[in-house]
Amino acid sequence: MLMPSIIGETLLDDFFGVPKEHYVRTNNSSNGLMQTDIAENDDSFLLIMNLPGFKKEDVKAELKDGYLTINASTNTSKEEKGENGKYIRKERFSGSCSRSFYVGEAVKQEDIKAKFEDGTLKITVPKKELKPEVEESKYIAIEG
How far, in Å, CA of 112 to CA of 126, rounded? Predict the structure, then answer.
């Protein structure tokens, strides 16, 4: 049975002594996960994405059909044992998130530059417009 969330995560948090400052919210607005700032330069766009708690090897970027997709996934476990070898605390976290941006079909994979540092992913995407194909007239020779 789910407990209603009135004060913290559940009504039982106060009973079990969980201080209010230790509440962790999971929506993107409060924990900064995948929040993205986009800056426009003369010849490119700069995407700055917050990925707190992720490592470089947890993050993948893919360009397909004009869409740049960022995927991040992690599996973390923490174990703390007391002096007698019994667990005092054992926690596991597994999660993933994804975000896509349309960058245009003229942008190629080799044009995009990405750097991950201190939980922040910076991606530079050049501005490119798909040049319309010039329709070439092909005449048919008429004999006669």
Answer: 7
